[in-house]
Amino acid sequence: MLEADDVSVVYEGGFTALSGASVTLAAGSVTGLIGPNGAGKSTLFGVLAGAVRPASGEVRLAGEMVTHHGPVWRARRGLARTFQLSRELASLSVLENVMVAQPQMRGERLLSVLWARGAVRREEDAARDKARGLLQRVDLWRLADAPAGTLSGGQKKLLEICRALMLDPRIVLMDEPSAGVNPTRIGEIVEFVQALRQEGTTFGLVEHNMGMVRALCDHVYVLAEGRVLTAGRFDEVIADTQVASAYLGAQS
């Protein structure tokens, strides 16, 4: 579904964040990226999402070369992303935060508002129904009218996933969805992702919580110093002596 082949990223000042990293996210699977802080995980996610342009290497989405296309172009072709820090629109309601992600709404165009009010209303009703269905799945519909800024950290992460799903993505990249979330909410996120995977959605996951990685990931890549150190099933990579060495003193 999504591949990065031999990608390198060099930031201003000469710092090499990635050096020849290659990963493959298989369709219908959950693929994890783990490693110590500064290993290049978030940079690699940025490359996959189109937010970071690699100095070399290639990125393919569903077999199509997308290396030089940005995140908006990739989103229109089925790639969505969530972030380590939730980016809710705090003053808007929970429902409005989800509905705003619905793409290509006629109500966003002045002429449609003036001359196609019926069509605009029907689209808005359909988007509201779609958003309600997603919020009901994560027990947030009861808070639909609450300002999104009042949600807990875990609820904000669930909200962000719902907002990404309004794009009907084929693949969702999640950057540390457990960060700042209590264990109960982490379990809810795991259950939601597992259900979505069963429905055919592909996921990429950057995560420090090894319990979540074990529960979700079919395949895991370990990054260290901008390179892929090893890859395989969770139990295989976590037992690798190189992985233990890479993490030693680098992660609590």
What's the rounded overall pLDDT mean?
87
Strand content: 15-25%
**Biggest beta-sheet profile:** 6 strands, mixed
CATH class of the largest domain: Alpha Beta
Look at the helices and sheets and give the structural class. Answer: alpha/beta
Question: Helicity range of the residues?
Answer: 25-40%
Number of helices: 10
> How many separate domains make up the residues?
2
Largest sheet strand order:
6-7-8-3-9-10
CATH evolutionary superfamily of the largest domain: P-loop containing nucleotide triphosphate hydrolases
- The backbone outline, from C-alpha atoms, is globular
CATH architecture of the largest domain: 3-Layer(aba) Sandwich
First-last Cα distance? 33 Å
**CATH-defined fold name of the largest domain:** Rossmann fold
Give, in order, the helices and strands: EEEHEEHEHHHHEHEHEEHH
What does this structure look like?
This protein has helices at about 40-50, 70-75, 95-100, 110-115, 115-135, 155-165, 185-200, 210-215, 235-240, 240-245, and strands spanning about 1-10, 15-25, 30-35, 55-60, 65, 80, 170-175, 200-205, 220-225, 225-230. With about 250 residues, it is an alpha/beta fold. It has a six-stranded mixed β-sheet, with helices on both faces. Strands 2-1-4-5 form a four-stranded antiparallel β-sheet, covered by helices on one side. Helix 6 (about 155-165) runs parallel beside helix 7 (about 185-200). The model has no long low-confidence stretch (mean pLDDT about 85).
